[in-house]
Amino acid sequence: MKKYIEQLHFITHDLESLSHVEQARIVCEAGGKWIQYRCLSKDDDALLADINEIASICDDWGATLIVTDHIHLQGKADIQGFHIEDMNADFLRIRAEVGEACTIGGSSNTLEGLLRLAHEGVDYAGFGPFAHTDTKPNNYPHLGVQGYEQAMVQLKTQQVELPVLAVGGVTINDVDALMQTGIFGVAVSSAINRAEDVEAAYLDFYQKLR
């Protein structure tokens, strides 16, 4: 079942200045169509409180709500899908658990990982890190533009159709070069939610991709 995937994924993050709900509201009011709620610091009750409020905002603005991990919350809130960060996750099992109608995204930092995700039927893949990021610290090598170019050539050669999004340290100045590699879109957190004007920062990314 082919799903709708937006080119610009906004990922919420734990911030002192803005709650996850406030981040989602600002982005949706700016025209955002894809909110990925990423919170790994709260218990289920607090998660559901956030998710239910964000789901209501997304419904009002016609945005898709994706939750990072926490697939055990399916059916307890109006969630359209899940993004699984564990690169070793069994996506065949996850698909069987959540059903065909649920959107599933996966993460990878290698071509081999992308091929596995495609084989196991994810609906899109976050591929990174593109550059240094403080949102999700890790020791993986930065892919850079060349890493995306090489991966997209290989996917095309092997006739693999998978929406690939660059993630990890992507700034507005990187978008043009990244999109020229053949990727589907970008996933952004800090470059938007840490900007002085969050709405303007989102719109800058949105317009770059149109």
From TrEMBL:
| UniProt record, GO biological process | thiamine biosynthetic process
User: Record's Gene3D superfamilies?
Assistant: Aldolase class I
InterPro entries linked: Aldolase_TIM, ThiamineP_synth_sf, ThiamineP_synth_TenI
Mind listing the UniProt keywords for this protein, alphabetically?
Answer: Thiamine biosynthesis
Q: Which residues form the Thiamine phosphate synthase/TenI domain?
A: 9-192
The answer to whether the entry has keyword Zinc is: no
Give the highest taxon in the source lineage: Bacteria
* Coiled coil regions in record: none
The Gene Ontology CC terms held by the record are: cytoplasm
Per the UniProt record, one Pfam family is TMP-TENI
A GO MF term? thiamine-phosphate diphosphorylase activity
Q: Does the keyword Chaperone apply?
A: no
Q: Which pathway?
A: Cofactor biosynthesis; thiamine diphosphate biosynthesis
Under the heading PANTHER family, the entry gives:
THIAMINE-PHOSPHATE PYROPHOSPHORYLASE, THIAMINE-PHOSPHATE SYNTHASE
Name under which the protein is recorded: Thiamine-phosphate synthase
Taxonomically, what lineage is the organism? Bacteria, Pseudomonadati, Bacteroidota, Sphingobacteriia, Sphingobacteriales
